[in-house]
Amino acid sequence: xxxxxxxxxxxxxxxxxxxxxxxxxxxxxxxxxxxxxxxxxxxxxxxxxxxxxxxxxxxxxxxxxxxxxxxxxxxxxxxxxxxxxxxxxxxxxxxxxxxxxxxxxxxxxxxxxxxxxxxxxxxxxxxxxxxxxxxxxxxxxxxxxxxxxxxxxx
Length: 154
Known about the structure:
By secondary structure, the protein is of the alpha+beta class. About 20% of the residues lie in helices and about 25% in strands. Strand 3 and strand 4 (about 90-95) form a beta hairpin. The protein is elongated, with a radius of gyration of 27 Å.
């Protein structure tokens, strides 16, 4: 027959057992949550951004707020969104959402929407609703009235 010997030093009461178990489970829960957070951040890498210029014909943009999506050049992996602000002023934006890198939709009703997480931007690329905390990349634009085109510097 096997004999079990208990000493006061090794015996753990019910309260102490529950306390230690609670601490261990809390630690495991936090470790799991931290793992999920780190895994979600792992996909957030900076896109390969190219630099240069491109010329885009804007003659089809005849009213303020009208837009076009130029996918011929994608400096950050997404097309360039061109929005007419006035007859001589145009905005060129990256379509890369600053929250987690999804491609935003073209404007609808003056709002640029990211379907991935619900961020909203105005037609100047400014954040109007998060989770994005910074605006869309706004490229420098030069308008050529005689040619009815813009040069976009990215």
